[in-house]
Design goal:
- By secondary structure, this protein is an alpha/beta fold.
- The chain has a single domain, classed as Nucleotidyltransferase, domain 5.
- It contains 3 helices and 7 strands, in the order H-E-E-E-E-H-E-H-E-E.
- The strands form 2 sheets. Strands 4-3-2-5-6 form a 5-stranded mixed sheet, covered by helices on one side. A two-stranded parallel ribbon has the order 1-7.
- Strand 3 and strand 4 form a beta hairpin.
- Helix 2 crosses helix 3.
Length: about 120
């Protein structure tokens, strides 16, 4: 019994599913975002600051102190005062620590701030 045509069909289906699958790549910092029912996907290019559960800020996946965070965000914003800065804080972080990082970004010249959430199912 010739199986060549059956094998061809199986390989074509395999290629189809491999090409149509969405591969999700997470950032290297392990955080769990707070959940919100009214969240929308973010498509605009942004400056993203991560805050882990201990309240430590990360920029470009590297831990950074508050003084250097101010300088780096100011450099990244440059003349574009309407640049969006997204704070991706772990859901277990103390709110005061996330607000301090938002304050640093605002004082560095960020015109728009956003606190990232994930969609609540």
């Amino acid at each position: 019994m010739p199986l060549t045509s059956l094998i061809d069909i199986v390989f074509m289906l395999l290629i189809y599913f491999l090409l149509t699958t969405n591969f999700i790549v997470d950032e290297g910092i392990n955080i769990k975002l707070p959940q919100a029912k009214a969240s929308k996907p973010q498509v605009e290019e942004t400056i993203t600051i991560f805050v882990d559960r201990d309240g430590r800020p990360f920029l470009d996946e590297q831990e950074i102190n508050m003084g250097d965070l101010f300088k780096r965000v100011k450099e990244m914003i440059g003349d574009d005062k309407d640049k969006l800065v997204v704070i991706r804080a772990d859901r277990t972080v103390i709110l005061n620590k996330a607000v301090k990082i938002m304050d640093v970004a605002k004082s560095a010249g960020a015109g728009r701030l956003c606190l990232a959430t994930e969609k609540d199912l």
